[in-house]
Write a structure and sequence with these properties.
30% helix, binds zinc ion, globular
Length: 135
């Protein structure tokens, strides 16, 4: 299904031009307009899914296999030193475009890309609560 108001549906369908690195029947991979680093790309499924909560398992699996292929290829193309694969779900997690996408962010030694978090500490209370609820 497509969403007629979704910009990534239009980009994935080729209705809005984009810098396309790769395309097949299920996905388009494009350069991000506001890159965190040189070569920052986005994997977009051609069908509309809001995010990881509602993407179907087959497409999710294919997206990760494609991420692996793109990372390998783009490392050769860019000569980067590593990669972050980032995928945001819902506003609280930084999602701003509500069409599933995976960020492929090349990393270069000494770059100042601001990904990461302040490390906390796993408390016994949190650990016990979570382990009890997950069972
Ligand atoms: P999010 O914050 O939802 O995980 O990521 C959205 C990403 O889409 C951002 O990195 C933003 O720069 C990128 N983006 C938003 N609109 C466009 C667009 O029209 N074209 C391209 N190529 N990237 C876009
Ligand atoms: Zn969409």
């Amino acid at each position: 299904m497509k969403d007629k108001d979704c910009i990534f549906c239009k980009i994935a369908a080729g209705e809005i031009p984009s810098a396309t690195l790769y395309e097949d029947e299920d996905f388009r991979v494009i350069l991000d307009l506001s890159p965190a680093s040189k070569g920052h790309a986005l994997i977009l499924p051609k069908e509309h899914y809001r995010n990881l909560y509602d993407i179907d398992e087959e497409t999710a699996a294919k997206a990760f296999v494609l991420a692996k292929k793109m990372v390998k290829k783009m490392t050769d193309v860019l000569g980067c030193d590593g990669y972050n694969v980032v995928q945001n779900n819902e506003e609280a997690a930084g999602q701003t475009v509500f069409h599933f996408h995976m960020h492929l962010i090349p990393r270069y030694k000494g770059d100042n890309v601001g990904l990461g978090w302040k490390m906390g500490e796993l408390t016994d209370a949190d650990k016990e609560e979570i382990l009890k609820k997950i069972k």
